[in-house]
Protein 1
Amino acid sequence: MSQLSRYLKDEDFKLNIKEKSIYIDNFTKIENLTSTNITITSNKQLIDIEGQDFAIKKLLDKEILFVGDVKNIKFIKR
């Protein structure tokens, strides 16, 4: 039960990138969203993802799953 409690209380920003998908958890705001650019803010940084054919597959309160081809990722400290 303690693992479930830790999972539910987890507020750390997470970014998982696989071959054709991008999973983001605990983000603050979606700043920009186009088929070639995704810009997300977290508490400590701005994440700018460049690529092509981006599309949202899943969107929840603080979770988002994109599909598409990632070409470049920039992490900008705030």
Protein 2
Amino acid sequence: MIHVTRLDGSDLVVNAELIETIEQRPDTVISLTTGRKLVVQQSAEEIVERVILYQRRIHGPIEIITRSKE
């Protein structure tokens, strides 16, 4: 879940897993897989950063495993 702010200043928590697209038109519009659209104060870049942080918290850091040459 990520926190965003509607244009009227109210806070909203969005399920990051449901975000389909983010558009900057000049207001930022988040389209969800449910068909719902949200207009928020944050930039598209800020939302992407929040989604990435959310994903890292949920899944942890990515560990790259390489095979040793034996």
